[in-house]
């Protein structure tokens, strides 16, 4: 197998133990002050995002009761990844990443304001909701490459899994708390007022990012080679093309992309239909919807904490861990799709969250460690482009559910996905080997 070239972070220094209240040593990447500050802002952003997602899903299911239209909302939120992800990746390699994160956060504030105004003045106009959701998706997808490329510059290579694990923890804490907050408030608070709340939370996150010194990104950029400086002055589309060339030249990257397409298209299809299962199958309301989202988030939090605290540094083959995580997710999807009782559904959703956390962390970890510093943003941008499989899967499973019911839709997609991931494992044997790095 060809050696996987990995470039160590050039600005990250050995971590000196940082203590909370003078007693408790902070773990891993949280010992680095700029990472802690960014992590706090990201926690607020994710929390706002999950409240927003839950409210939008509830508005659509209340207005239509249609599995297809609920899934179309998922498509609108995630389809922009195919365009904004690669462009955001190219920008992350060209501009100050901290400023880029600030600007995209301000964009989310504006979208939340428009959602509140739209529902206050127009009501549940689905196409307006879809449009604003898609615009929000543009900002959400464009910022991912800047964040992850910045992590790779801020922390030592040995703590990169930790940094990605803490990002997953921020995501999953929000996935737990956001839907619970939304589900608890929706019976008493109108949807437009909920978006006023997300506007405030996004605004606080934007303010928090201004406490992060932009010089940390400048330091990382100035530490790169002269060749990368010359490359950064090339045109945007040429820069994008160079990123695709790097991706195609590395079999491990191609293999990871194949896993992403398969997993996002088939492994998590139950998530698209949670509003339908909450109301039509389980006979619940907004509280049940929030609880289901939160149980999946609790599983992801447990998995992320396991990765950060113990498992991450013990994985010698990230590719094998990635394949196992996706396969388990497909297997869980079959009984999950068949479930009609709340306790069983909640347990299986928690289990799905545990496997999902490993999947999310390992895919980004492999890409960041397999590419040089100067193209990391672009490779993560290309990675986000393949997330298009998730909204496409949402439309497919929603269409099947509309004709044959949600049980058949989820079981069929999970079964097909399990077969496909087996094919990917056979087609790319390097995924099952230990990942060797050369300087």
What's the total count of β strands?
4
- Counting copies of identical and different chains, the oligomeric state is single chain
Strand fraction: under 5%
Quote the average pLDDT: 79
Straight-line N-to-C gap = 17 Å
- Described by the principal axes of the CA atoms, the overall outline is globular
| Low-confidence residue ranges | 1-15, 224-233
The tally of structural domains comes to 1
Going by CATH, what is the homologous superfamily?
MFS general substrate transporter like domains
What pattern of helices and strands is seen along the backbone? EEEHHHHHHHHHHHHHHHHHHE
Structural class: mainly alpha
Level of helix content?
Answer: over 70%
* Strand ordering within the main sheet: 1-4
Describe what you observe in this structure:
By secondary structure, this protein is mainly α. Mean pLDDT is 79; it is low at 1-15 and 224-233. It is 75% helix and 2% strand. It is globular and about 50 Å long. The two termini are 17 Å apart. Helix 3 (81-92) runs parallel beside helix 5. Strands 1-4 form a two-stranded parallel ribbon. Strands 2-3 form a two-stranded antiparallel ribbon. It has a single domain, classed as MFS general substrate transporter like domains (Growth Hormone, Chain: A), CATH 1.20.1250.
Helices and strands, with pairings:
Blueprint: E1 4-5, E2 19-20, E3 24-25, H1 33-64, H2 67-78, H3 81-92, H4 97-121, H5 126-154, H6 160-185, H7 191-209, H8 215-222, H9 226-232, H10 236-248, H11 251-266, H12 274-281, H13 286-311, H14 318-338, H15 342-369, H16 376-385, H17 389-404, H18 406-427, E4 437-438
Parallel strand pairs: 1-4
Antiparallel strand pairs: 2-3
Helix pairs in contact: 1-2, 1-5, 1-6, 1-7, 2-5, 2-17, 3-5, 3-10, 3-16, 4-5, 4-7, 5-16, 6-13, 6-15, 11-14, 11-17, 11-18, 12-13, 13-15, 14-15, 14-18, 17-18
